[in-house]
Amino acid sequence: MTIHKINFYLGVLSQTADHQRLFTHMEMLTLMQQVFMDIAPPQLAPHCALGGLSKGKLTIFARNGAIAAKLRQTVPSLLSKFQAKGYEVTAIRIAVQAHSTTYGDNARAGKRSISEAGRESLRQLATTLPSSPLKTSVESLLQKAGKTRQPAESGVKDFK
Fold first, then answer.
1. Is the dihedral of CA 118, 123, 125, 126 positive or negative?
2. pLDDT tens across 101-133, in order?
3. What pLDDT digit, counting tens, does each position of 46-96 carry?
4. Pairing label, strands 57-62, 48-54
5. pTM of the model as a whole
C-alpha cells in the first residue's frame, strides 16, 4: 500500500514545473542505464552505473580500479554506440566509486573459516607473543574461529 502512495506522490511531483526538468533528466538516465547494460561488455556492465550527463559528458562509475581500467579501453566503442542509439554523448568519463550498493550482485561473501592448521599456527603464535593488543586480537580471532584452546596463561611455554 505504501508503494502506491509514494508512486502517487512522485507522479504528482513530476508534473510540477519546479520538478519536471529533474524527473525528465532522471527518466533519461534510467533509459541510458538500460542501454548501457546492453552495449557495454557483459562482464563489466553489472559492475558499473551511470552517474550523470551534463553538456554531452557522460560519467560512468565503476566498482573498482580494475573494472574502470577495462572500461576505459571500451570508451570509443561505447561513445559511438550511445550516439548510434540517438543520445547526444560527446565524451565519457570513467570514475571509481568503491563500496557502492548500486551495482549488480551485492550478496555478501559466505562466512569464512580458518582451517585446523591455521588455528594451530595462530595458537602457537599467541603463546609466544607477550601481552599486547596483537596477542589479544589473535586470541579473539581464535575464539571466534571456534574449537580454540586457550593459550597457557602461566609463564611455562612448550617449545618443540
1. positive
2. 544 444 445 567 888 888 998 999 899 989 988
3. 999 999 889 999 999 999 999 999 999 999 999 999 999 999 999 999 999
4. antiparallel
5. 0.56
What is residue 55's predicted lDDT score, i.e. its pLDDT?
A: 92
* 95 CB-near residues (< 8 Å, 6+ apart): 51, 59, 60, 61, 62, 68
Contact 121, 127 (CB under 8 A): no
Q: In which residue are the cell numbers 586457550 written? A: 150
C-alpha pair distances (Å), 108 with each of 13, 36, 77, 99: 36, 25, 33, 12
